[in-house]
Design a protein that fits this description.
Blueprint (H helix, E strand, L loop, with lengths): L8 E6 L5 H16 L4 E2 L5 E2 L1 E5 L6 E4 L14 E8 L4 E6 L7 H10 L5 E6 L1 H7 L15 H13 L2 H4 L1 E3 L6 E6 L2 H12 L2
Parallel strand pairs: 1-7
Antiparallel strand pairs: 2-3, 4-5, 4-8, 5-6, 6-7, 8-10, 9-10
């Protein structure tokens, strides 16, 4: 099982914590989603789930760090800024106190494709994953998480399916994994909660 393993190459530049006022809502939503069990850790110790917000009018974004799923509450030490990325070369640069989540390239792909998306929430839930599989936009089963192919699947779903309207997608090749997004964290979170209570 390679869940939670970082597959991209990364230049991780040590940097200051992101200012609390910039991520207060991010921390609140992330910790609430953790309480619901949608971000967490498997029995083997591998963490799952991540959350990000775009830095206004840029392609940079703030994302929760790799392997933080076991923590009930995060603080600014657990977030980093993705400053640059190259999907084709499976590479990104992040600046902060922690390495960016293993799903960062998927977030990057969505932000780069759709400028009106400013927040993304990636979670795991086995029952909901099975229920939503192929009922909402769904990636191809052979495409693994954290790879350029998964990032390119985001582009395909925007172009071939109603992803822009649905604002939710299931990763068929990333067991239990799906994500929601929106113009802000409240929209992305409310979409997630709406499906969670189905």
């Amino acid at each position: 099982m390679d869940e939670g393993v970082v597959k991209y190459s990364c230049e991780c530049i040590p940097g200051e914590n992101v200012a609390v006022e910039l991520i207060a809502s991010l921390m609140k939503w992330r910790d609430h989603i953790h309480e619901l069990g949608l971000i967490g850790v498997y029995e083997n110790g591998i963490g799952f789930g991540n959350i990000s917000i775009r830095i206004a009018n840029t392609l940079q974004f703030i994302i929760s760090g790799s392997q933080t799923g076991h923590l009930a509450k995060l603080n600014p030490d657990h977030y980093t800024v993705v400053t640059e990325f190259n999907i084709e070369h499976n590479h990104l640069t992040c600046c902060g106190p922690i390495q960016a989540s293993s799903e960062s390239l998927t977030h990057a792909a969505i932000y780069s494709y759709e400028p009106n998306i400013n927040a993304i929430i990636h979670v795991h839930h086995p029952q909901l994953w099975r229920k939503l599989l192929n009922q909402v936009p769904t990636t191809r089963k052979e495409v693994q998480y954290g790879t350029p192919k998964m990032a390119q699947e985001m582009f395909r779903l925007f172009e071939e399916e109603n992803l822009r309207e649905k604002k939710i997608l299931v990763m068929a090749g990333h067991e239990d994994g799906f994500l929601t997004f929106g113009k802000d964290l409240n929209e992305a979170g409310e979409i997630l909660i709406q499906y969670y209570h189905i």
